[in-house]
Amino acid sequence: MIIDNIKTKYPKIVYLLLSALIFILIAKSYLFFVYVVNFNGEIPNNINFVCVWGFRLFLISLILFIKWDFSEILLLIIGLVITLLTRNSLFLAFFVMGVYCRNNKISNEYLVKNYLFITAIFFLGMILLNAFNILPNGVDVHYRGDSIRNDFGFGNPNSPFLAALPLYAGYIYLRFDKYDIYDRILLLIASFVIYFQTYSRTGLITILAILLFIEIVKRVDIRKNKFATSILTLLPLIITALSFFTAKFLNNNFFNEILSHRPESWDIYIKNIKLFRNPHYYTLRETYPLDNSYIFSFVLYGVIFTILLLALYTYYMRKNLLENNAKIIAICSIFLIYSFGENILFNIGLNFTLILAISSVSFRNFLGPKKSIFQRK
């Protein structure tokens, strides 16, 4: 009753609470870039204290501002179980934010805009601080041939492309219906500017593949093209299979050189996949870096959780295909494709599409007489 009165008196509070939590999550991601990746240290205790307690307080606030029914409670229980199994509280945040957005009728556009604008503030802030040498490049100097690779203060030359992904996704989402030649030129220029500073070949190749994929999504009537519908529906599973195929069959000098020795590392990791989380993951990662969200999930979180996640994305892709919601398909594809070469799929400070997917799930669809989303209309 008290919450209802607050909502009635201050209707914008449901938006402000969500925005505040998103700000905290993005801030924590950038603090990780600066202190852990760049300075090879730890986030200072006083700063980390503010972020941790800010995260907890706003997450609790979101929970209080949800009108819980069977569907919402079941999703919360799933989120709690996954959090306990993975020992990662951010998965609970994914589920709470997804339920919160649907329960309070917060549009996809509002969520996307928040991630776009808040990320833009932090991203441009990092570049300006680096340009004025207030925030220097990382302690480890990276080279491409004889050229020093700029990391813009992110600590790793591959990180600027990674950090910019919400900007690409948000921009494409908002401009999708009016996406024209000027948008294409702008995104290409931005991509090559980042590349010629960082020399991140994997980042550039992936971004160009994403932009090409967007062109295909815009040009093909996905509801009438059975082949396109099947490919897009199964995209999470296809990229997962491609990850394993790359590790086992493309683990050679040519592809290792192109993909910065990722296939070599992936092949080592897939030998350590278990039904549930692998307790030796962090010891393994100290020796071999891993830049693939799918193999990362299979090794760190186990087979059961990863299959659940892939099923959720497959459900969401299919749902939006049947609704002809091409721009949701486009931005989900951006994160799914980029996750082939980076650990981004479970980074709530960067990937907002998992929140969108969870917000679309309602168990009423399974209990009621409605037609299954896996049947054609």
Question: What is the string of SSEs from the N terminus onward?
Answer: HHHHHHEEHHHHHHHHHHHHH
What's the rounded overall pLDDT mean?
86
Tell me the total number of β-strands: 2
The biggest beta sheet is recorded as: 2 strands, antiparallel
Helix percentage range: 55-70%
> What's the gyration radius in Å?
21 Å
Contiguous uncertain segments of 5+ residues = 368-377
Strands side by side in the biggest sheet:
1-2
Number of helical stretches of at least 4 residues: 19
Report the portion of residues in β strands.
under 5%
Which word captures the global form? Answer: globular
What's the N-to-C terminus distance?
Answer: 41 Å
Structural class: mainly alpha
Q: Could you walk me through the main structural features you see in this protein, from its secondary elements to its overall organization?
A:
The structure is a single chain. The protein is mostly helical and 377 residues long. The protein has a domain of 106 residues. It is built from 19 helices and two strands. The longest helix has 26 residues. The C terminus is likely disordered.
